[in-house]
Amino acid sequence: MSRFFRAKGDSDSETESSEDEVEDQKVNKSAKFRDDLDFMAGPEDDVKRVVRAQKDKKFDELKSIIKQNRDAKSNKDLNRLLNGFDSLAKAFKSSKNVFQQQNVTIPRFYIRSLVEVEDYVNNLWEDKEAKAALSKNNAKALPVIRQRLKKYVKDEDLGKLIADYRASPDEDGYETPEDEDDDDFEEIPEAKTEKSPGKQADKAADSDSDSDSDDGDSSNWSSEPDTNSSDDEDSVTKMEQLRRYFLKKEFREDSKDDKKGDKRKRVIKVKEVVEDDDDDSWTPVSREKSVVHFDPKEEVTHDVMIKKLNEVMSARGKRTTDRNQHVANLQKLLEVSEEKNLGLGINVKISFCIISALFELNAKISDFMEYETFMKTLQTVNRLLDLLIETDKVKLSVTYAEEDENLKDDTQEYRIQGSILIAVQRLDGELAKILQNADCHSNDYIEKLKAEKDMCQLIEKAEGYVELRGHLKIFDEHEVCKVYMMRIEHTYYKYQDQNEKEVGKTMDYLCNKIYSLDKEKRLRQRAMLCHVYWLAVHDQWHRARDLLLMSHMQAIVDHSDVDTQILYNRTICQLGLCAFRHGFIREAHQGLSEIQNTQRAKELLAQAVGTRQHEKTAEQEKIDRSRQVPYHMHINVELMECVYLICSMLLEIPHMASCEFEMRRRMLSRSFHYQLKQSEKASLTGPPENTREHVVAASKAMLNGDWKKCKDYIVNDKMNQKVWNLFHNAETVKGMVVRRIQEESLRTYLLTFSTVYTTVNLKKLADLFELSKKDVHSIISKMIIQEELSATLDEPTDCLIMHRVEPSRLQMLALNLSDKLQTLAENNEQILEPRTGRGGYQGPGSWFPGRNERQGDKQKGSGGFQGERRGGQGQDGKRGNWGSQGGQQRRHPQKQRAF
Amino acid sequence: MSTFDLTQRMAPFLDLHLIIPLLEFIEPRGIYDEKSLTEMHRQLLSKTNMIDSVIETYNGKPIPAAIEAKKKQIIKERDELKSKVDSVVAILEIPEVKEMMDNNRERDGNVRILEHLTQNHNFTVDMVDTLFKYSKFMYECGNYTVASVCLYYYRNLVNQADPNYLNALYGKLASEILLQEWEHARDDLLKLRAYIDANPFDTEWELVTQRAWLMHWALFVYYNYPKGRDEIIEMFLNQQPYLNAIQVLAPHLLRYLAVAVVTSKSRQKNSLKDLVKVIDIERHSYKDPVTDFLTCLYIKYDFDEAQEMLQKCEEVLSNDFFLTAVLGDFRESARLLIFEMFCRIHQCITIEMLARRLNMSQEEAERWIVDLIRTYRIEGAKIDSKLGQVVMGVKSVSIHEQVMENTKRLTLRAQQIALQLEKSRQEKVKVN
Predict the structure, then answer these.
(1) Contact A345, A351 (CB under 8 A)
(2) What DSSP assignment string belongs to B171-210?
């Protein structure tokens, strides 16, 4: 059943379109209807455009309702069908006038829809089983609709038409599956415009070699006009005929499509043939191909060649031009030129044209190149570059105008317009696209990644070329920067184990070049970020940090383009990891929390397209996809998360222990607390599975002062595999972490149990935590000085004397109250007092000036009670106005940071 | 021993003539190879016009002919310049003109005087250049008095936008430094600093470089000027741009800053924290015993090592041109810092250990502590001489004290806010 209906439905849309056209024709038929078929085939597009009358509107209205009905049918929603039917009848009634005015008969598609509905209802009526399966509502609606339909047909006197239709229902022939159908609709206008001028040109210019299928078409048609003219009066039959006629046309369209496909295939063959350079089997195709043929009598000179080239090139970019063919033509030209020894100038020119043609094989910029084409282009560019490096007689530059080109005079240097550097750049872009679109877990990706190496070599070569010819002033400064930038971008994320120094020098050199050359700052920023990234990957923490601080990137990044923001995010993460490897826990935490606290780490790093985002338009999504970082450049997010959690643990656990008595704890890391809470909620805690659970379990152990257990959770085989082995200096990092765990556990222990002890022997503490006495002493001293621990040391006995008293409940409340009053006062002061601007370097220590402070604000906001929170936020907003970078203002763009 | 000597690191930031005293200071210390040092010294001098000093370095050995020839040439040149400049100086020394110059204000851009001179005294613009050349020449010859006088005139005649203006300022400062006229030098330093802070330079980099230079030159002034050390703190530490310049270009200046902070009486409390922070950040790019001492004391809380560092500091300081004079001061202050730290952490300390830590004999230490307790009134510290211990009074803060402490200032703060609000409201009313 459904098949039947679907088939009908499809045919319906076909008729619609044809009907439409018929109607159009009819409007201006008096003059044009009987024109020859060329007219019918060609400019029907135009006619359609001329008449955009009410009628069309009505048609559209009707059609949309019909479509709804059809949906309702396929959903078996009879209620909807009923409503749809009513509105259809209504709509038709109102359109009747219009039709009469314009002398239009009842459209066939309308009749057919009626027939469809009727059939459907009748079928359903008779099919007892299906009827029984209907829902209550639908069962009620069924007789109603059946009744109404009958009545309607009778009332409107449509019986005859329906009978007519039943007599000659639409043929199955032109039923096409729905989706294909849609495609056709999209393609037809394009195909038509593409084809028709060409065809006309064909007929006008050389009528000899038009392809056979076209002829076949026209012969098919030739009978039609007669029928049309003879049955002029009977509009219904005429329509029928016309419909047939268009039906044919549909066929024709199909066959044409086929032909197109054929042609494509053949062209591919042609390409092969051209490469092989013999075998005539492909002759039927190429009208264009003939362009390349030189008159055998004529001697091929520069002028002839240039003329020919211009001829070929004039076809470039036209719709009619087959792009593959275009490339083949050019290649042929190059061969001839090389054969006849026409000089380097022309060779370079043609090669350059080939390269552009290869790039243009894809019509859409968002499409990625075929890998094979890419490799071919790469080779061509490579060859051209070699040629240019070899000889200094050829100058290729964008600064030349087309008129100044010198292609033939070999006494002077050849001047050619164009830029090899841009070609290299574009190639680089294509590679990125190819990698983005490849499946990153397949071998295919690895295969394709090999091209990256070639690309690097090419870029290096291009750089060499730039430096070799830099004095000739043939390069645009921006181009040159781009070449350096490309090289940086292919280097910065790669970890060099052996020749680190060498690459480091290259990196310095390249970046310095850009710093000095680039005028518009964007590349400079990017180069700087890449530089920082590289340094961070190679464990040069201090240099990386200083460079980042000096660049003021954190202040301006919100105003820069998305790609730079992504790079910034990547850099910050890498810097955070670097800080961790060096044991700078606080800095690592700062760096990583930027990204980790958002829950969208992957998106922010452009390693995945966001899913939970509000609906994006298809376009946005496309853009997002085009920004994705290729897989081989990804930063390991799981590792990052783990590092972040470990950092949070080391910072947060002692902190939690110290503010045990405060009502509301101030959080350093939200996501860490979230994880902790989650695990507390769990009714059953099994042994940890993933890295996250390991860290959480370790945190709990630490909170109890059990450093050994904590250590075991952090450093074990599972974690080795997932985390530690990913560091190139795993052992030192592990050592560092264990050491930090010992220290922080000691601190936590002291803070937690300070009320239990009056004196503690230092030696015992040292034994307990396997630290040297000196270290214990220093840790305790620090805590005393910073007033975390109210205790003093007794030197002669080597004891720690605790002074901590457990506060009574009242005291605790009083303390809390006073704390809050204080924050309230502070907030008020901040609201009132405009802070002095805080642009620029924020002084020593804060390696995240703006952002860091902002985080502080957040904590304040969540730390206070309800009424105060508002205050905190208001203050944020204010700051946005005052400072060069304030809370609210900054937070907003940060949300968009993703893309 | 030469590891902690900064002469080499400082030299790029100093004028040739300013390096000479540094070299002369270092020579007898025997830190460097004597021969290479003399050679260095000679080369340095030969770049200047101080031929006589060059000849001195040969110490009676035969003198190369080239130098003799150079000497003659220089004398000739000097005579030439002098003959030209005499008339200029004559004009400028007319009492009326002098008075005008003394009353001159920066703001006028020196245009008025120049106008006055050209109108009344046949003064030409060329003369100004001659004056500059002459003063430069005299400076090269080591005649700083003349140079400083001439540059004083020059500075008053020339517009600030003149390319030589900055040079003149530097020249004047150097002359005053070499003449050891600290009062004048300080004035010049301030002028120069004001000029640099106005940022007349093209690039950020140049500005930073100039600041680094200025700070090096300032060392001469501030370590010889009674209140100079506080001014060092003010300039080096509290002025963010200068601190940045230190971090970027000359982290070795941290030593001087650290000594200044440690020895300063009035500014120490507030500055110490900032200083320690900076030292911590720059630890990877610069450290010496002085900064390490502070690191050990305030970051690592490692008293033994601090003690070692203190000992090393003595050596370093005594070999430093600028710091030898403050060695005693530094030692005393550093000890005090250590002791203070001890008092804060400990409840009970044996004198014997203290003495060891402070590098003193036990008796000396006891006396020292008594002095300390008396002069600084360290709260609750008592000496138990029978057990040989210092006992601190425990000052555990009870909770209600804590609450009181926290809330004490709240009323005042609230009042201030109210006042401020009132004020801003009134202002608004006025505007409307």
Answers:
(1) no
(2) HHHHHHHHHT-HHHHHHHHHHHHHHHHT---SSHHHHHHH
Q: Between A608 and B217, whose confidence is greater? A: B217
Domains and CATH numbers, chain B: 48-200 (1.25.40), 346-394 (1.10.10.10)
Beta-bridged to residue A395, according to DSSP, are: A415
Question: Does the pLDDT at position A890 exceed 60?
Answer: no
Structural element, H or E, at residue B416: helix B410-431
CA-wise closest residue to A514 among A490, A479, A544: A479
Average pLDDT over residues A183-210: 42
Within 8 A of A845 by CB-CB distance, chain B residues are: 277-278, 280-281
Question: What is this structure's pTM?
Answer: 0.67
Instruction: Give the integer Cα–Cα distance in Å for B147 and B135.
Output: 4
B400 neighbourhood in chain A, CB within 8 Å: 811, 814
Which residues in A219-268 belong to E strands, given as ranges?
none
User: Given pLDDT bands bounded at 50, 70 and 90, which one contains residue A231?
Assistant: very low
Considering CB atoms only, which of A542, A792, A811 is closest to B346? A792
Distance in angstroms (rounded) separating the CA atoms of residues B370 and B390: 10
A832/B417 CB distance under 8 A: yes
Binary contact (A815, B402; C-beta < 8 A): yes
pLDDT attached to residue A612: 55
Residue keyed to tokens 């806010």: B417
Most A CBs within 10 A among B247, B399, B410, hence the mutation to make, goes to: B399
Residue A803 sits at the chain B interface (C-beta within 8 Å): yes
**Of residues B302, B346, B402, nearest to A778 (C-beta):** B302
Burial of B390 (0-12, 13-18, 19+ CB in 10 A): buried
- Give me B119's structure tokens: 């109108």
Look up tokens 């400079």; give the residue.
A524
Q: How far is B275 from chain A (nearest CA, A)?
A: 10
* Per-residue pLDDT reduced to its tens digit, B105-145: 555 556 677 777 777 777 777 788 888 888 888 888 888 88
Instruction: Give the residue extent of every domain in chain A.
Output: 2-179, 288-475, 491-629, 637-755, 814-896
Q: Please, are residues A673 and A611 in contact by the beta-carbon 8 Å criterion?
A: no
Q: Tell me how many degrees the CA angle A559-A563-A568 measures, rounded to the nearest 5.
A: 70
- The CA–CA distances, whole Å, from A67 to A80, A346, B406 equal 12, 60, 75
Q: Does residue A843 sit at the B interface (CB-CB below 8 Å)? A: yes
**Sign of the CA dihedral with B359 first, then B365, B371, and B377 last:** positive
Does A192 score more than 80 pLDDT?
no
CA A441 vs. chain centroid, Å, equals 18
If pLDDT is split at 50, 70 and 90, which confidence band does A533 have? very high
Asked if residues B294 and B275 have their Cβ atoms less than 8 Å apart, the reply is yes
User: A819 at the B interface (CB within 8 A)?
Assistant: yes
Identify the residue with better confidence: A19 or B158: B158
User: What pLDDT was estimated at residue B8?
Assistant: 84
End-to-end CA distance of chain A: 48
Which residues on chain B are in Cβ contact (under 8 Å) with A794? 346-348
pLDDT tens digits for range A568-583: 999 999 999 999 999 9
In sequence order, what are the beta bridge partners of A791? Answer: A802
Which letter, b or e, does each residue of B174-197 get, where b requires 16 or more Cβ atoms within 10 Å of its Cβ? bbbbbeebbebbbebbeebbebbe
Q: Check if A785 contacts B (Cβ < 8 Å).
A: yes
- The Cα–Cα gap between B160 and B192 comes to 11
Burial call A244-280: b when 16+ CB within 10 Å, e when fewer? ebbbbbbebbebbbebeeebeebbeebbebbeeeeee
Supply the DSSP symbol for A847.
S
